[in-house]
Amino acid sequence: MSSSYLPATTDSIAQALEAKTPSEAISILYRVLENPSSAPDALRIKEQAITNLSDLLRQENRAEELRSLLAQLRPFFAVIPKAKTAKIVRGIIDDVAKIPGTSDLQISLCKEVVQWTRDEKRTFLRQRVEAKLAALLMENKEYPEALNLLSGLIKEVRRLDDKLLLVDIDLLESKLHFSLRNLPKAKASLTAARTAANAIYVPPAQQGNIDLQSGILHAEEKDYKTAYSYFFEAFEAFNSLEDPRAVFSLKYMLLCKIMVSQADDVAGIISSKAGLQYVGLELDAMKAVADAHAKRSLKLFEIALRDFKAQLEEDPIVHRHLSSLYDTLLEQNLCRLIEPYSRVEIAHIAELIELPVDHVEKKLSQMILDKKFAGTLDQGAGCLVIFDDPKTDAIYPATLETISNIGKVVDSLYVRSAKIMA
């Protein structure tokens, strides 16, 4: 312990606040923490010093120092209540999370804290840090490890009947299964989260999270009207809290309107009182897609995808649904263009639809294989040959039905004759 420690008093905290530079303030706070006093007033001042120091290190983007601070404070945690320890530890982990580009550091930090809580038998804190670790592993796409961690944690928390933590874990498990494209398990986990949430008071932010996940799962099942109502509930919850996730809820609301061919409503929602608060690239992207959909223009659609790549293609939820919408629009446009012809050059179709020839040729071959229309590609001549739809002759089904009925009559007569002979 250094001999240059400062007294754990409000004057020392004030001295740190009045420091000219963040580095000077950090140095003063470290010296306050070195004070060996365990008096109640001194402990209270040290807690304040830890909070201030953590904030300063976060502002200075000194993530490694935050990690070291957590290790240095372990002797201090032995003399304060466990509840206060949990608050400080989770606060420092959250401060590290606010520093960009620290996902690997956060994972290793959480693993260190989990090991320490196991050694110290601090179950309450360990469970919450493990839930945070599972969320970080999921963000890092380390799905198997996250799933293993959650499986054990859920069983443990269910035994303790900690419903608030259970809601968090079930919701996290639902997101994890959705990332792995396992929709039945994602829905089951979400139902478990809702059941636990119904038994307790859930903070509005967490309720918004549940509604957002419900909307995502319903949208995945193409139930866009129900998804819209859930996204609207999530938007209202986040909007009242001024949470940045509100803009994503609004974005998904607009996506649902586009997917049910109500693109005309998009402009009205954006220009509403609530929508105007979130005007920006996210909503501009959805408006561009809505305009392209309303005009049935593939060229405008592709321009929107190119101009708003970060907002559309890099958002996995929006990208998945827009890919489906693009394919549908392309098929509708191609069917409309080839309808008057029995033989047409592929280059001519590509020119009319304003898309590359190879792209159009690939899509036409896919449509033929999917039996969207009857035809063949003459690649030597670069032409598409369209056949008339073969008309099914009604006599064959009628004949099969007659033979089936005769078979039933013969079977019935055989059963009766068997009874008479008996």
From TrEMBL:
Give yes or no: UniProt keyword Signal: no
Q: What UniProt keywords apply to this chain's record, in alphabetical order? A: Proteasome
The keyword Isomerase is annotated on this UniProt entry: no
Q: In this protein, which residues make up the domain named PCI?
A: 223-391
What Pfam family does this protein match (any one)? RPN6_C_helix
| UniProt-listed PANTHER family | 26S PROTEASOME NON-ATPASE REGULATORY SUBUNIT 11/COP9 SIGNALOSOME COMPLEX SUBUNIT 2 (PTHR10678)
Q: Which family does it belong to?
A: Belongs to the proteasome subunit S9 family.
Instruction: Return the protein name.
Output: PCI domain-containing protein
- Its source organism is Hibiscus sabdariffa
Upper lineage: Eukaryota, Viridiplantae, Streptophyta, Embryophyta, Tracheophyta
